[in-house]
Amino acid sequence: MRTRRQVLALAVAAVAAASAPLLSHAQVLRNIPATAPAAQLTINSANGGTLSTGSTGIVRILLLGFGSSSADIRFAPGVRILSLDGRLLPTSSVVGQTFKVRYQLDLYQQLLTAWVVSDDDYKAAVAAQSQAQAQSQ
Length: 137
Prior knowledge:
About 35% of the residues lie in helices and about 30% in strands. It is of the alpha+beta class. The protein has a five-stranded mixed β-barrel with strand order 1-2-3-5-4. It has one domain. Keywords: Signal.
């Protein structure tokens, strides 16, 4: 009887060990607000960067002013830049890099949160922003 329990325990342990790598490859669930605009973020220093919006008009008007497609932006205290797999990227370790992001600003127009997105997600967000702008005109 005791041997049967040991075999069962070993079988359960083997199944658990085999399923662990599968769980580590699961897609990370990220809650990006639908209102978060898309832009390209270049990290210039640990305290600031440049947002380039291209032709996403409503974001350009609100954040950058008329006729401008990029602007320097300061980072809010506690800024969070989240990678594709949900890891927090320290700004000091990614200086000089450019990411396609969706972002949120704080009340002082400083970057509060940026989610690094894939090329497909970025293109979809830009298309949605362009469509929303066209409908508002």
